[in-house]
Design brief:
The protein has helices spanning about 1-10, 10-25, 35-50, 55-60, 80-90, 110-120, 150-160, 165-170, 180-185, 190-205, 210-230, 235-240, 240-245, 255-265, 290-300, 320-325, 375-400; strands at about 70, 105-110, 310, 345-350, 355-365, 365-370, 400-410, 410-415, 430-435, 440-445, 455, 465-475, 475-485. It is elongated and about 90 Å long. The relative contact order is 0.12. A hairpin with a 2-residue loop joins strand 5 and strand 6 (about 365-370). A four-stranded antiparallel sheet has the order 3-6-5-4, with helices on one face. A four-stranded antiparallel sheet has the order 10-9-12-13, with helices on one face. It has a three-stranded antiparallel sheet with strand order 7-8-11, with no helix packed on it. Helix 3 crosses helix 17. It folds into three domains: about 1-240, no CATH class; about 305-370, no CATH class; about 400-485, Sandwich (Immunoglobulin-like). It has about 475 residues and is α+β, with helices and mostly antiparallel strands.
Protein backbone atom coordinates (compact mmCIF):
# COMPACT_ATOMS: atom_id res chain seq x y z
CA UNK A 1 0.00 0.00 0.00
CA UNK A 2 2.81 2.43 0.87
CA UNK A 3 4.59 1.60 -2.37
CA UNK A 4 1.37 2.31 -4.24
CA UNK A 5 1.09 5.67 -2.57
CA UNK A 6 4.67 6.54 -3.48
CA UNK A 7 4.02 5.77 -7.10
CA UNK A 8 0.83 7.82 -7.07
CA UNK A 9 2.52 10.83 -5.51
CA UNK A 10 6.01 10.55 -6.95
CA UNK A 11 6.74 14.20 -7.59
CA UNK A 12 9.12 16.10 -5.37
CA UNK A 13 6.36 18.59 -4.55
CA UNK A 14 3.97 15.93 -3.23
CA UNK A 15 6.29 13.31 -1.77
CA UNK A 16 7.24 15.15 1.40
CA UNK A 17 3.72 16.27 2.25
CA UNK A 18 2.07 12.91 1.64
CA UNK A 19 4.91 10.98 3.25
CA UNK A 20 4.44 12.85 6.49
CA UNK A 21 0.71 12.44 6.25
CA UNK A 22 0.89 8.69 5.69
CA UNK A 23 3.28 8.24 8.61
CA UNK A 24 0.94 10.21 10.81
CA UNK A 25 -2.18 8.30 9.78
CA UNK A 26 -1.03 4.79 8.91
CA UNK A 27 -0.05 3.68 12.39
CA UNK A 28 -3.43 2.21 13.33
CA UNK A 29 -7.08 2.63 12.58
CA UNK A 30 -8.85 4.80 15.13
CA UNK A 31 -11.27 2.78 17.21
CA UNK A 32 -14.84 3.99 17.27
CA UNK A 33 -16.11 4.46 20.84
CA UNK A 34 -16.13 1.37 23.03
CA UNK A 35 -13.73 -1.27 21.77
CA UNK A 36 -15.89 -3.93 20.07
CA UNK A 37 -13.76 -6.97 20.88
CA UNK A 38 -13.52 -6.23 24.61
CA UNK A 39 -15.77 -3.47 25.93
CA UNK A 40 -18.83 -4.03 23.74
CA UNK A 41 -18.60 -7.78 24.31
CA UNK A 42 -18.32 -7.27 28.07
CA UNK A 43 -21.09 -4.67 28.29
CA UNK A 44 -23.40 -6.93 26.30
CA UNK A 45 -22.58 -9.98 28.40
CA UNK A 46 -23.46 -8.12 31.60
CA UNK A 47 -26.61 -6.69 30.07
CA UNK A 48 -27.78 -10.15 29.06
CA UNK A 49 -27.05 -11.50 32.54
CA UNK A 50 -29.03 -8.69 34.20
CA UNK A 51 -31.96 -9.07 31.80
CA UNK A 52 -34.53 -11.84 31.38
CA UNK A 53 -32.66 -13.16 28.34
CA UNK A 54 -31.82 -16.54 29.87
CA UNK A 55 -35.31 -17.16 31.22
CA UNK A 56 -37.01 -16.11 27.97
CA UNK A 57 -34.91 -18.49 25.90
CA UNK A 58 -35.44 -21.34 28.35
CA UNK A 59 -39.15 -20.95 29.03
CA UNK A 60 -40.52 -19.07 26.03
CA UNK A 61 -38.45 -20.12 23.04
CA UNK A 62 -37.97 -23.79 23.86
CA UNK A 63 -34.22 -23.59 24.55
CA UNK A 64 -33.87 -25.33 27.93
CA UNK A 65 -30.29 -24.21 28.58
CA UNK A 66 -31.19 -20.58 27.98
CA UNK A 67 -28.18 -18.39 27.30
CA UNK A 68 -25.97 -21.51 27.40
CA UNK A 69 -27.97 -23.32 24.72
CA UNK A 70 -25.67 -24.45 21.87
CA UNK A 71 -26.96 -23.12 18.55
CA UNK A 72 -25.63 -23.81 15.08
CA UNK A 73 -25.53 -21.44 12.15
CA UNK A 74 -26.15 -23.69 9.16
CA UNK A 75 -24.62 -21.97 6.13
CA UNK A 76 -26.57 -24.27 3.82
CA UNK A 77 -29.81 -22.54 4.83
CA UNK A 78 -28.53 -19.12 3.69
CA UNK A 79 -28.00 -17.71 0.22
CA UNK A 80 -24.43 -17.90 -1.04
CA UNK A 81 -23.56 -14.20 -0.68
CA UNK A 82 -24.99 -13.92 2.83
CA UNK A 83 -23.26 -17.12 3.91
CA UNK A 84 -19.88 -16.02 2.59
CA UNK A 85 -20.11 -12.52 4.06
CA UNK A 86 -21.23 -13.73 7.47
CA UNK A 87 -18.60 -16.48 7.53
CA UNK A 88 -15.81 -14.04 6.71
CA UNK A 89 -16.91 -11.61 9.42
CA UNK A 90 -17.28 -14.34 12.03
CA UNK A 91 -13.91 -15.87 11.20
CA UNK A 92 -12.28 -12.48 11.79
CA UNK A 93 -13.45 -12.46 15.43
CA UNK A 94 -10.89 -12.97 18.16
CA UNK A 95 -10.95 -16.64 19.30
CA UNK A 96 -9.94 -15.51 22.79
CA UNK A 97 -13.09 -13.41 23.18
CA UNK A 98 -15.34 -16.38 23.90
CA UNK A 99 -17.90 -15.44 21.24
CA UNK A 100 -16.37 -16.73 18.01
CA UNK A 101 -18.26 -19.81 16.76
CA UNK A 102 -16.50 -23.09 16.12
CA UNK A 103 -15.56 -24.22 12.65
CA UNK A 104 -18.89 -26.07 12.56
CA UNK A 105 -20.77 -22.82 13.26
CA UNK A 106 -21.60 -23.63 16.89
CA UNK A 107 -21.77 -21.18 19.80
CA UNK A 108 -24.01 -20.61 22.78
CA UNK A 109 -27.00 -18.29 22.53
CA UNK A 110 -25.28 -15.71 24.70
CA UNK A 111 -22.10 -15.90 22.63
CA UNK A 112 -24.06 -15.24 19.44
CA UNK A 113 -25.54 -12.07 20.94
CA UNK A 114 -22.07 -10.95 22.06
CA UNK A 115 -20.71 -11.65 18.59
CA UNK A 116 -23.42 -9.43 17.15
CA UNK A 117 -22.34 -6.58 19.42
CA UNK A 118 -18.78 -6.93 18.09
CA UNK A 119 -19.82 -7.29 14.44
CA UNK A 120 -21.94 -4.13 14.70
CA UNK A 121 -18.74 -2.14 14.24
CA UNK A 122 -16.86 -4.59 12.08
CA UNK A 123 -15.65 -2.99 9.86
CA UNK A 124 -15.16 0.17 11.97
CA UNK A 125 -16.74 2.33 9.25
CA UNK A 126 -20.14 1.12 10.52
CA UNK A 127 -19.57 3.00 13.76
CA UNK A 128 -20.29 6.31 12.06
CA UNK A 129 -23.99 5.34 12.22
CA UNK A 130 -23.89 4.93 16.01
CA UNK A 131 -23.81 8.68 16.75
CA UNK A 132 -26.88 10.38 18.19
CA UNK A 133 -27.09 13.99 19.32
CA UNK A 134 -30.33 14.02 21.34
CA UNK A 135 -31.18 17.73 21.11
CA UNK A 136 -31.28 17.68 17.31
CA UNK A 137 -32.05 13.94 17.14
CA UNK A 138 -29.49 13.50 14.41
CA UNK A 139 -26.35 11.52 13.71
CA UNK A 140 -22.74 12.30 12.98
CA UNK A 141 -22.19 15.61 11.18
CA UNK A 142 -18.77 17.01 10.42
CA UNK A 143 -19.74 20.63 9.95
CA UNK A 144 -16.30 22.21 9.52
CA UNK A 145 -15.30 19.30 7.27
CA UNK A 146 -12.15 17.30 7.65
CA UNK A 147 -9.43 18.22 5.19
CA UNK A 148 -10.09 16.35 1.97
CA UNK A 149 -6.44 15.32 1.70
CA UNK A 150 -6.27 13.99 5.25
CA UNK A 151 -9.52 12.10 4.90
CA UNK A 152 -8.54 10.63 1.55
CA UNK A 153 -5.21 9.30 2.76
CA UNK A 154 -6.72 7.93 5.99
CA UNK A 155 -9.28 6.00 3.96
CA UNK A 156 -6.64 4.69 1.55
CA UNK A 157 -4.40 3.50 4.38
CA UNK A 158 -6.99 2.28 6.85
CA UNK A 159 -10.10 1.20 4.97
CA UNK A 160 -8.94 0.16 1.55
CA UNK A 161 -10.71 2.93 -0.36
CA UNK A 162 -8.83 3.85 -3.51
CA UNK A 163 -7.36 7.25 -4.24
CA UNK A 164 -9.72 7.37 -7.23
CA UNK A 165 -12.67 6.82 -4.85
CA UNK A 166 -11.47 9.63 -2.62
CA UNK A 167 -10.82 11.96 -5.54
CA UNK A 168 -14.23 11.33 -7.10
CA UNK A 169 -16.17 11.52 -3.85
CA UNK A 170 -16.98 7.81 -3.66
CA UNK A 171 -15.16 7.23 -0.35
CA UNK A 172 -17.28 7.45 2.82
CA UNK A 173 -17.82 10.88 4.30
CA UNK A 174 -17.51 11.80 7.94
CA UNK A 175 -21.21 11.75 8.57
CA UNK A 176 -23.83 9.08 9.11
CA UNK A 177 -27.40 8.16 9.91
CA UNK A 178 -28.63 8.85 13.39
CA UNK A 179 -28.40 5.80 15.65
CA UNK A 180 -32.20 5.52 15.76
CA UNK A 181 -32.47 5.59 11.95
CA UNK A 182 -29.66 3.06 11.64
CA UNK A 183 -31.50 0.60 13.91
CA UNK A 184 -34.31 0.42 11.35
CA UNK A 185 -32.23 0.83 8.17
CA UNK A 186 -32.70 -1.98 5.60
CA UNK A 187 -28.94 -2.04 4.91
CA UNK A 188 -28.16 -2.72 8.56
CA UNK A 189 -27.94 -6.51 8.73
CA UNK A 190 -27.72 -6.33 12.53
CA UNK A 191 -30.69 -4.03 13.08
CA UNK A 192 -34.26 -4.35 14.23
CA UNK A 193 -35.74 -5.70 10.97
CA UNK A 194 -33.26 -8.59 11.07
CA UNK A 195 -34.00 -9.19 14.75
CA UNK A 196 -37.77 -9.38 14.28
CA UNK A 197 -37.58 -11.36 11.04
CA UNK A 198 -35.21 -13.89 12.59
CA UNK A 199 -37.33 -14.31 15.70
CA UNK A 200 -40.43 -14.92 13.57
CA UNK A 201 -38.66 -17.42 11.34
CA UNK A 202 -37.19 -19.24 14.35
CA UNK A 203 -40.77 -20.36 14.99
CA UNK A 204 -42.20 -20.52 11.49
CA UNK A 205 -39.49 -22.21 9.39
CA UNK A 206 -40.26 -25.78 8.44
CA UNK A 207 -36.98 -27.55 9.22
CA UNK A 208 -35.13 -27.46 12.57
CA UNK A 209 -31.84 -26.31 11.02
CA UNK A 210 -33.63 -23.39 9.39
CA UNK A 211 -35.24 -22.40 12.69
CA UNK A 212 -31.96 -22.65 14.56
CA UNK A 213 -30.11 -20.55 12.01
CA UNK A 214 -32.93 -17.98 12.10
CA UNK A 215 -32.62 -17.75 15.88
CA UNK A 216 -28.85 -17.26 15.53
CA UNK A 217 -29.43 -14.43 13.04
CA UNK A 218 -31.94 -12.86 15.43
CA UNK A 219 -29.50 -13.08 18.36
CA UNK A 220 -26.70 -11.55 16.27
CA UNK A 221 -29.04 -8.66 15.48
CA UNK A 222 -30.04 -8.35 19.14
CA UNK A 223 -26.37 -7.86 19.99
CA UNK A 224 -26.03 -5.34 17.17
CA UNK A 225 -29.00 -3.31 18.43
CA UNK A 226 -27.71 -3.36 22.00
CA UNK A 227 -24.29 -2.21 20.77
CA UNK A 228 -25.84 0.93 19.24
CA UNK A 229 -27.46 1.82 22.57
CA UNK A 230 -24.22 1.15 24.44
CA UNK A 231 -22.54 3.79 22.32
CA UNK A 232 -25.10 6.29 23.59
CA UNK A 233 -23.22 5.93 26.88
CA UNK A 234 -20.00 7.25 25.29
CA UNK A 235 -19.87 11.07 25.53
CA UNK A 236 -18.34 11.68 22.09
CA UNK A 237 -21.16 9.76 20.40
CA UNK A 238 -23.87 11.98 21.85
CA UNK A 239 -21.89 15.22 21.51
CA UNK A 240 -21.09 14.85 17.77
CA UNK A 241 -17.41 14.72 18.63
CA UNK A 242 -15.75 12.56 16.00
CA UNK A 243 -12.82 14.92 15.60
CA UNK A 244 -11.84 15.58 19.20
CA UNK A 245 -12.36 12.02 20.44
CA UNK A 246 -11.39 9.86 17.50
CA UNK A 247 -9.09 11.88 15.25
CA UNK A 248 -6.99 13.75 17.79
CA UNK A 249 -4.70 10.74 18.23
CA UNK A 250 -3.56 8.08 15.77
CA UNK A 251 -4.80 5.35 18.11
CA UNK A 252 -8.28 6.82 18.47
CA UNK A 253 -10.25 7.43 21.63
CA UNK A 254 -8.31 7.75 24.88
CA UNK A 255 -11.46 6.89 26.86
CA UNK A 256 -11.99 3.74 24.80
CA UNK A 257 -8.38 2.67 25.27
CA UNK A 258 -8.54 3.34 29.01
CA UNK A 259 -11.69 1.24 29.48
CA UNK A 260 -10.38 -1.57 27.28
CA UNK A 261 -7.02 -1.64 29.10
CA UNK A 262 -8.48 -1.32 32.59
CA UNK A 263 -11.38 -3.78 32.30
CA UNK A 264 -10.86 -5.87 29.18
CA UNK A 265 -13.94 -7.89 28.32
CA UNK A 266 -14.35 -9.76 31.62
CA UNK A 267 -13.70 -7.29 34.45
CA UNK A 268 -16.30 -4.61 33.74
CA UNK A 269 -18.41 -3.57 36.74
CA UNK A 270 -21.72 -5.38 37.17
CA UNK A 271 -24.87 -3.88 35.71
CA UNK A 272 -27.33 -1.91 37.78
CA UNK A 273 -30.96 -3.05 37.71
CA UNK A 274 -32.44 -3.07 34.17
CA UNK A 275 -33.93 0.29 33.24
CA UNK A 276 -37.52 0.06 31.93
CA UNK A 277 -38.60 2.61 29.34
CA UNK A 278 -41.97 3.13 27.64
CA UNK A 279 -40.74 2.53 24.08
CA UNK A 280 -37.58 1.92 22.10
CA UNK A 281 -36.83 5.54 21.24
CA UNK A 282 -37.02 6.57 24.90
CA UNK A 283 -33.98 4.43 25.67
CA UNK A 284 -32.07 7.07 23.69
CA UNK A 285 -34.10 10.27 24.04
CA UNK A 286 -37.44 11.22 25.61
CA UNK A 287 -39.43 14.16 26.89
CA UNK A 288 -38.64 13.15 30.47
CA UNK A 289 -34.92 13.70 29.80
CA UNK A 290 -34.02 10.16 30.88
CA UNK A 291 -32.84 8.73 27.58
CA UNK A 292 -29.30 7.37 27.83
CA UNK A 293 -28.02 9.77 25.16
CA UNK A 294 -29.47 12.71 27.09
CA UNK A 295 -28.05 11.63 30.44
CA UNK A 296 -24.60 10.97 28.99
CA UNK A 297 -24.50 14.31 27.20
CA UNK A 298 -25.57 16.19 30.35
CA UNK A 299 -23.08 14.52 32.68
CA UNK A 300 -19.81 14.17 30.77
CA UNK A 301 -17.46 16.10 28.52
CA UNK A 302 -15.68 14.76 25.47
CA UNK A 303 -12.28 15.97 24.23
CA UNK A 304 -13.73 18.15 21.47
CA UNK A 305 -16.40 19.76 23.66
CA UNK A 306 -14.29 20.97 26.59
CA UNK A 307 -14.32 24.57 27.79
CA UNK A 308 -11.80 26.65 25.89
CA UNK A 309 -8.58 27.59 27.62
CA UNK A 310 -8.39 31.23 28.63
CA UNK A 311 -6.11 33.78 30.26
CA UNK A 312 -7.14 35.23 33.61
CA UNK A 313 -7.24 38.96 34.06
CA UNK A 314 -5.76 40.23 37.34
CA UNK A 315 -9.23 41.16 38.61
CA UNK A 316 -10.95 37.86 37.66
CA UNK A 317 -12.55 35.96 40.56
CA UNK A 318 -13.27 32.19 40.61
CA UNK A 319 -16.85 33.05 39.67
CA UNK A 320 -15.62 35.12 36.73
CA UNK A 321 -13.43 32.23 35.63
CA UNK A 322 -16.36 29.80 35.70
CA UNK A 323 -18.48 32.23 33.68
CA UNK A 324 -15.75 32.57 31.06
CA UNK A 325 -15.42 28.79 30.81
CA UNK A 326 -19.18 28.24 30.56
CA UNK A 327 -19.60 30.80 27.78
CA UNK A 328 -17.31 28.70 25.60
CA UNK A 329 -19.22 25.43 26.04
CA UNK A 330 -20.66 23.71 22.98
CA UNK A 331 -23.45 22.19 25.11
CA UNK A 332 -25.18 23.77 28.07
CA UNK A 333 -24.39 20.85 30.39
CA UNK A 334 -22.38 19.96 32.33
CA UNK A 335 -21.58 23.38 33.73
CA UNK A 336 -18.22 24.37 35.09
CA UNK A 337 -18.40 25.42 38.73
CA UNK A 338 -16.15 25.63 41.76
CA UNK A 339 -12.94 26.48 39.91
CA UNK A 340 -9.90 26.99 42.10
CA UNK A 341 -7.77 29.38 40.05
CA UNK A 342 -5.09 30.10 42.61
CA UNK A 343 -1.60 29.85 41.06
CA UNK A 344 -0.54 26.20 41.03
CA UNK A 345 0.93 23.69 38.61
CA UNK A 346 -1.06 20.77 40.05
CA UNK A 347 -4.11 19.23 38.45
CA UNK A 348 -7.48 20.10 39.91
CA UNK A 349 -10.93 18.72 39.05
CA UNK A 350 -14.48 19.88 38.42
CA UNK A 351 -16.82 17.59 40.36
CA UNK A 352 -20.39 16.61 39.53
CA UNK A 353 -22.32 14.31 41.87
CA UNK A 354 -19.01 13.33 43.46
CA UNK A 355 -17.39 12.42 40.14
CA UNK A 356 -14.38 14.05 38.55
CA UNK A 357 -15.72 15.10 35.15
CA UNK A 358 -13.12 17.66 34.07
CA UNK A 359 -9.45 18.29 34.85
CA UNK A 360 -7.77 21.70 34.74
CA UNK A 361 -4.50 23.42 35.56
CA UNK A 362 -3.43 27.01 35.99
CA UNK A 363 -0.02 27.75 34.52
CA UNK A 364 0.92 31.40 34.91
CA UNK A 365 -2.32 33.18 34.04
CA UNK A 366 -3.57 30.53 31.61
CA UNK A 367 -6.26 28.03 32.65
CA UNK A 368 -6.10 24.80 30.69
CA UNK A 369 -8.90 22.17 30.59
CA UNK A 370 -8.44 18.50 29.72
CA UNK A 371 -9.53 14.94 30.50
CA UNK A 372 -7.19 12.49 32.21
CA UNK A 373 -7.17 8.95 33.57
CA UNK A 374 -8.69 10.05 36.88
CA UNK A 375 -11.70 11.48 35.00
CA UNK A 376 -11.96 8.33 32.88
CA UNK A 377 -11.74 6.12 35.97
CA UNK A 378 -14.57 7.97 37.72
CA UNK A 379 -16.70 7.96 34.59
CA UNK A 380 -16.20 4.24 34.01
CA UNK A 381 -16.83 3.29 37.64
CA UNK A 382 -20.13 5.15 37.86
CA UNK A 383 -21.40 5.14 34.28
CA UNK A 384 -20.65 1.71 32.81
CA UNK A 385 -23.13 -0.03 35.19
CA UNK A 386 -25.79 2.44 34.03
CA UNK A 387 -24.99 1.78 30.36
CA UNK A 388 -25.35 -1.94 31.03
CA UNK A 389 -28.63 -1.32 32.86
CA UNK A 390 -30.09 0.53 29.88
CA UNK A 391 -28.88 -2.24 27.56
CA UNK A 392 -30.49 -4.87 29.82
CA UNK A 393 -33.71 -2.88 29.80
CA UNK A 394 -33.63 -2.80 26.00
CA UNK A 395 -33.21 -6.59 25.83
CA UNK A 396 -36.24 -7.01 28.10
CA UNK A 397 -38.18 -4.48 26.02
CA UNK A 398 -37.53 -6.26 22.73
CA UNK A 399 -38.46 -9.63 24.25
CA UNK A 400 -41.34 -8.32 26.35
CA UNK A 401 -44.16 -10.28 24.71
CA UNK A 402 -44.72 -14.01 24.42
CA UNK A 403 -47.32 -16.54 23.36
CA UNK A 404 -48.28 -18.67 26.35
CA UNK A 405 -49.32 -22.14 25.23
CA UNK A 406 -51.14 -24.61 27.48
CA UNK A 407 -52.95 -27.91 27.07
CA UNK A 408 -56.61 -28.21 27.95
CA UNK A 409 -57.68 -31.79 27.47
CA UNK A 410 -57.29 -32.73 23.81
CA UNK A 411 -56.86 -29.11 22.79
CA UNK A 412 -54.45 -26.28 23.50
CA UNK A 413 -54.81 -22.58 24.20
CA UNK A 414 -52.60 -19.69 23.07
CA UNK A 415 -52.60 -16.35 24.90
CA UNK A 416 -50.62 -13.18 24.22
CA UNK A 417 -48.67 -12.21 27.31
CA UNK A 418 -46.61 -9.11 28.15
CA UNK A 419 -48.66 -6.65 26.12
CA UNK A 420 -48.24 -2.98 27.00
CA UNK A 421 -51.41 -0.98 26.53
CA UNK A 422 -53.60 -1.61 23.51
CA UNK A 423 -53.01 -4.13 20.73
CA UNK A 424 -53.05 -2.89 17.14
CA UNK A 425 -56.03 -4.18 15.19
CA UNK A 426 -55.46 -6.98 12.73
CA UNK A 427 -52.64 -8.74 14.61
CA UNK A 428 -52.58 -12.37 13.48
CA UNK A 429 -51.64 -15.40 15.54
CA UNK A 430 -49.87 -18.16 13.60
CA UNK A 431 -49.90 -21.70 15.05
CA UNK A 432 -47.61 -24.55 13.99
CA UNK A 433 -47.54 -28.28 14.65
CA UNK A 434 -44.19 -30.09 14.74
CA UNK A 435 -43.94 -33.81 13.95
CA UNK A 436 -41.51 -36.46 15.18
CA UNK A 437 -38.96 -35.48 12.50
CA UNK A 438 -38.92 -31.88 13.73
CA UNK A 439 -40.74 -30.56 10.69
CA UNK A 440 -43.29 -27.80 11.30
CA UNK A 441 -46.44 -26.98 9.42
CA UNK A 442 -48.78 -24.07 9.98
CA UNK A 443 -52.14 -25.41 11.14
CA UNK A 444 -54.11 -22.27 11.96
CA UNK A 445 -54.17 -18.49 11.83
CA UNK A 446 -56.41 -16.42 14.05
CA UNK A 447 -56.99 -12.74 14.69
CA UNK A 448 -55.42 -12.14 18.06
CA UNK A 449 -57.36 -10.56 20.91
CA UNK A 450 -55.46 -9.02 23.82
CA UNK A 451 -55.64 -11.22 26.91
CA UNK A 452 -58.10 -13.63 25.29
CA UNK A 453 -56.99 -17.28 24.88
CA UNK A 454 -57.39 -18.85 21.46
CA UNK A 455 -58.30 -22.54 21.30
CA UNK A 456 -56.27 -24.80 19.01
CA UNK A 457 -56.99 -28.30 17.84
CA UNK A 458 -53.99 -30.62 17.98
CA UNK A 459 -53.41 -32.76 14.85
CA UNK A 460 -52.49 -36.41 15.27
CA UNK A 461 -48.75 -37.05 15.42
CA UNK A 462 -47.92 -33.62 16.84
CA UNK A 463 -44.90 -33.59 19.17
CA UNK A 464 -44.69 -29.86 19.74
CA UNK A 465 -46.83 -26.76 19.24
CA UNK A 466 -45.35 -23.37 18.41
CA UNK A 467 -46.85 -19.97 17.72
CA UNK A 468 -45.89 -16.41 16.92
CA UNK A 469 -47.64 -13.09 16.46
CA UNK A 470 -46.15 -9.95 14.96
CA UNK A 471 -47.88 -6.75 15.94
CA UNK A 472 -47.70 -3.44 17.71
CA UNK A 473 -48.72 -2.22 21.14
CA UNK A 474 -48.27 1.09 22.97
CA UNK A 475 -44.56 0.29 23.39
CA UNK A 476 -43.98 -0.32 19.69
CA UNK A 477 -43.39 -3.26 17.36
CA UNK A 478 -43.11 -6.75 18.83
CA UNK A 479 -42.77 -10.37 17.80
CA UNK A 480 -44.29 -12.68 20.41
CA UNK A 481 -43.29 -16.32 20.28
CA UNK A 482 -43.83 -19.48 22.25
CA UNK A 483 -43.33 -23.24 22.10
CA UNK A 484 -44.55 -26.21 24.13
CA UNK A 485 -43.92 -29.96 23.89
CA UNK A 486 -46.79 -32.38 24.19
CA UNK A 487 -46.78 -34.27 27.47
Amino acid sequence: MKATLKRLFATARHRAAFGALVLALAGSSPALAWDPATTHAGLTERALAASKFHAILAHQLGRPLGSLEPLRLDAATLDVDTSRSLRDRLEALDPAGGYRPTGEGMATAGAWAKAGAVLAKTPPELGRHHFFEPNKRQGLEDGPGLSGTVHSVRLVVDDGATVRDAATGLAPALDGMSALDWLWAPQNDLGLPRFFDGLERSVAAARPEERETALVRSLLALGGVVSVLEDAGQPAFVRNDFRGELLAHDSGSELERFVADRFGGVALPAAASPVPRPDLESFFVADDGKGLAQLTQQRFFSPGTLPQDFVLAPSDTPSDAADIANRSLVFSEPKVAGLDVRPSQRTRYVLRDGLRVLAYQRTGRRVHFFLDRAVYADSARRWLPEVEAYAAGLVDHLLRTSIKLAFVGAEATATLDGLRGSLAAGTTLHIFAEDSAGVRKEIATKLLRAGQPETIGIPAGTRKLAAFARGKDDAGVFVAAGEISLP
